[in-house]
Structure formats: structure tokens, C-alpha cells
Design goal:
Blueprint: H1 3-10, E1 12-22, E2 27-39, H2 45-53, E3 65-73, E4 81-91, E5 98-103, E6 113-119, E7 125-130, E8 134-144, E9 147-156, E10 162-173
Antiparallel strand pairs: 1-2, 1-10, 2-3, 3-4, 4-5, 5-6, 6-7, 7-8, 8-9, 9-10
Pfam family, one: CpeS
GO molecular function: lyase activity
EC number: 4.-.-.-
Length: 180
């Protein structure tokens, strides 16, 4: 699998169930959410702008996309969790199963971020992102075309301590139009 295949397989509307263990707080959290992943043109304004931030030539990117989410956590009386983010893969020109992932907004910290990705031999997408205060490691794999799993680890910035561990199962929802 390469990044173009991964993004193409990810496009759609997903229903997600996430279980997170926040070790720093000694708390378990369950989150249910809806995730929309849509492709973007390499010429889209938001793609060009994010490439400028990182001094990346937009001609070197592959399969940019937007991810939007809205969900609900069982952690106390938390408000709905929602947001969206532009993500831009930049494949390594020599090793196409590796590259960088530009993020308008990070997973572990609400700042622009750049991570390093690669694919394992079994097709698992692995993304490692260093932030100011923590580091995130995410792994995503497809069980079948409409089911994927995601494991996320948030570690201390030195990588010596684990702050949060989560597992998500995500099921692609069929569009109403395809049911007719």
C-alpha cells in the first residue's frame, strides 16, 4: 500500500467508537463520533497555504484531504467534540512508502504539525509526530474496505512516558444515494 491507496481507501463517512485511557488522570473515556474524509485538489487554496507554511512545493504532494469530525465523550459533562483539519501527504521521492504528513491542526496539540509516515509490510499506516510538549504515534489499518482500526499513543516529548493510549474501530457508512 502507498499513500494514494491509503487516502483513496479512507475517503467517506465513518462512524467511530474510541476507547481512551488517560494515564495521567487515571481515567477511561469512551468517544463516539462521525468522521468525514474528503479529497482536496492539490490546487485548493488551503493546500497551497499549508504547503507555503512548510516551504513545500505543492507539485510534490499526493492526495491531500480534509478530515472533519463531530462526537460525544462520556467524560463528565463534556461538550460535543468537533473540528476539521487539512492533511497533506508528501511522499518521499526515493521511498514511496514513506513520507511526511502536513497537518493544519495536530492530533495531540492544537497547532500545525508535520509528521513522518511509513507503511509496514502488512499495509499498516504508521505516523509519528513530535509536538512541543508530547509525541504522538498513530497506526491505522484496514480490516476490510469498510472497517478500519486505529491505535494512538501520546507520549511525553522525550518519548519515555506514556500519557494516553486509545483504540478506535471505524466503520464506513454507506451513502443514502447508493442504497437507492
Amino acid at each position: 500500500m502507498d499513500i494514494q491507496d491509503f487516502v483513496e481507501n479512507s475517503i467517506g463517512h465513518w462512524r467511530s467508537q474510541r476507547s481512551a485511557h488517560h494515564l495521567a488522570f487515571g481515567h477511561f473515556e469512551a468517544v463516539q463520533s462521525e468522521i468525514d474524509i474528503t479529497s482536496l485538489s492539490t490546487e485548493a487554496t488551503e493546500v497551497i497555504e499549508l504547503c507555503k507554511i512548510y516551504n513545500i512545493d505543492p507539485q510534490t504532494v499526493a492526495s491531500p484531504f480534509r478530515m472533519s469530525w463531530e462526537g460525544q465523550s462520556d467524560w463528565e459533562d463534556s461538550e460535543a467534540i468537533k473540528g476539521n483539519c487539512v492533511l497533506i501527504p508528501v511522499p518521499d521521492p526515493v521511498q514511496p512508502r514513506r513520507g511526511k504528513l502536513l497537518r493544519e491542526r495536530g492530533y495531540a496539540e492544537e497547532v500545525a504539525a508535520i509528521g513522518e509516515y511509513h507503511f509496514t509490510d502488512d499495509g499498516t499506516f504508521v505516523l509519528i509526530t513530535a509536538y512541543d510538549h508530547v509525541a504522538a504515534e498513530e497506526k491505522i489499518w484496514f480490516v476490510n474496505p469498510n472497517v478500519r482500526c486505529r491505535v494512538s499513543l501520546i507520549k511525553t516529548s522525550a518519548g519515555t512516558g506514556l500519557v494516553t493510549a486509545s483504540f478506535s474501530s471505524e466503520i464506513r457508512q454507506k451513502s443514502q444515494e447508493s442504497d437507492m
